[in-house]
């Protein structure tokens, strides 16, 4: 398996995982797509330094999470470089899941 094939495999696993987490939060809370997105957006803004996750990033993230589009290999490479030492989306999803799972 070459480097690109490995990256595509990791990209597919990441995309599938974040979509599952997103839907899990929505199901646990019985929220609409708009409600779960608003909570996630607020959590991302809360935990990331200002300017690290902009409005264009939020719009792109929402499209990926709601399956309106799939991440491309080059977007995955860019994200890997950009967020080499942080995982703001996974952190925000994890925070919301833990917060709302503990309330059930």
> Radius of gyration in whole Å, from Cα?
14 Å
Coarse shape: globular
Count of separate DSSP helical elements: 5
Structural class: mainly alpha
In the predicted model, the low-confidence regions spanning at least 5 consecutive residues are none
Mean pLDDT: 90
Q: Portion of residues in helices?
A: over 70%
> From N to C, what is the helix and strand string?
HHHHH
First-to-last CA distance: 43 Å
What's this, in brief?
This protein is mainly alpha-helical and 104 residues long. It is built from five helices and no strands. The longest helix is centred in the N-terminal third of the chain and has 27 residues, at 3-29.
Explain how this protein is built.
By secondary structure, this protein is mainly alpha-helical. The protein has a domain at 33-104. Helix content is 74%, strand content 0%. It has 5 helices and no strands. The protein has helices spanning 3-29, 33-47, 55-65, 73-82, 88-101. Helix 2 crosses helix 5 (88-101). It starts with a helix and ends with a helix.
């Amino acid at each position: 398996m070459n480097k690109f094939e490995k990256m595509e495999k990791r990209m597919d696993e990441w995309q599938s995982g974040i979509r599952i987490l997103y839907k899990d939060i929505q199901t646990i809370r019985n929220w609409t797509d708009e409600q779960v997105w608003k909570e996630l957006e607020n959590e991302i803004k809360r935990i990331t330094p200002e300017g690290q996750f902009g409005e264009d990033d939020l719009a792109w993230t929402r499209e990926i999470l709601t399956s309106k589009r799939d991440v491309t290999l080059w977007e995955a490479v860019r994200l890997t470089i950009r967020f080499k030492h942080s995982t703001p989306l996974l952190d925000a999803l994890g925070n919301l899941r833990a917060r709302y799972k503990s309330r059930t």
